[in-house]
Amino acid sequence: MGIKRKPKKMVLMLLALIMTLSTAACSSGNGDKNNEGKANNGKTANATTEPTKAPPSADEPGWMSDTSPITFDWYLNFAWFPNKWGVDPTSKYITKKTGVDINFIVPAGNENEKLNTLIASGKLPDFITLGWYEDAVKKMIEGDLVLPLNKLADEYDPYFFKVSDPDKIGWYTQPDGNIYGYPNASSSPADYEKYGDTYVSNQTFVVRKDMYEAIGSPDMRTPEGFLNALKLAKEKFPDINGQPIIPLGLHEFTATGNDSLEQYIQNFLAIPRQKDGKLYQREADPEYIAWMKTLRQANQDGLLAKDIFIDKRPQMEEKIAQGRYFAMLYQRSDFAAQLGTLYQQDPNKIYIAVDGPANTKMDAPTLNGPAISGWTVTLISKDVKDKARAIKFLSYLNSEEGNKDLYLGEKGVSYDTIDGKDQFKPEVFDLMNKDRSAFDKQIGSSFTFWMLMNTNITAQWTPKSVEPFKQLEDWTRGKTQSISEFDQIDPMANSPEGIILAKTKELRSKVLPKALMAPSDAEFDKIWTEYLNKQKELGFDKVLAFQQTKYEENKKKLGM
């Protein structure tokens, strides 16, 4: 059940072209040599002519041609990444199989500072993985700091094209005709045709099950019901194990804004991203403003704890593990480990997904599903110590074989063929659900190393979700949408439009907490009106015009 690749003709033509060019190059190059060395009756005059090296095959995994030991430095632009390669049996198995060892480099503090320092130095580690949305991707490409994957594949490993999706190659191909980064967790429109009904979203509104039931499982879709539920929870459960309750949890406030107060709540309110082909300014929408005023009222009523304005993810994880939040508008995967721990302690004190904020028509949420851009992209540095081994290892990780090795691990160790299906051994699956951190170190499979994970490929081995995770996933089914055409529409940070966008985000980061802390709706209106006017003064219309052009280009790319 491999990934669907469309159009198939394109792949076959591409592979045929590669093979033809390779053969032609060898024939033409060798022809001159052979003619020079031939004399009477076609016999070779010079017996010392070197044998020609066979071109790399487009049909066979390139990594198998060389499994000698090599260590690559791999930079991950995620300070929270806790794992090391070679500690667990899965990564040890892959190193034994391919010869490739990995030294992960992870920033200790601010990711952007670390990455910008590396870029400024002009010398990068062998591999780099970062969010596709990071400005640094364009900086590295424009600074000639990374190599075109297509050219590496042409020269060393045409198998890359066989295991890569042409739609995703097309999406990430730059104006110069090259592709420099390949995505993980990416789903194209063609993937949606095949797998769409199985897709789930990370975006959830959750409540602590025991508290929610204790206050009568109220409807929280309306502003009145939402505020009343927070109030009842605080009155009935003022303290959690000696610590004050936090009625509502949000994503952290950052230097650019707050995910919960932007796209999350906008998606729950089903606010459109475009109207009649024109990008829509969602934060000026009346439904959105009405709910922001609801949160302002929550703060006035003492229902927004000061913690939420200052806590970062580590502090939030600690408080989630303590069960101190009543409700959260939050990404479910970000608290999966804590949820598993809570479930082991008491299945009633877990977080469950419920219908949260809704628009006045009570439309279903329009949550972000998988998109063609994926989550991260992986690039190969111009300073890579071995170009051939690098592209071959990337092809391996990107292939069905590599995805299976990283997802299931080594047969007999973490998985077996049980009831005719390759699946995790029961004790391994049990550990994964009980203690994810321990699982990563003791097993190391199931996306512990996610740099090139293809969730459409691994779906064939994915075990059925178990509680408490299943309920959250199931709640999102049927509510997800592809947002591919809205990805990658922002300008470069150092462009005129990019500078305006950066100033707007900085302004937003200051306005959001200020608006929630406003003493009255009238004061909120004043703050929000000033904010939208200030956007215009900064020249935000230029940003919108830039984004509109990119959006229309994306639609053409996707054949929409």
TrEMBL record:
Signal peptide (residue range): 1-24
Region spans: Disordered: 28-62
InterPro entries named among the record's database cross-references: Bact_solute-bd_prot1
Highest taxon above the source species: Bacteria
UniProt keyword annotations, A-Z: Signal
Polar residues: compositionally biased ranges: 28-51
Protein name: ABC transporter substrate-binding protein
Lineage: Bacteria, Bacillati, Bacillota, Bacilli, Bacillales
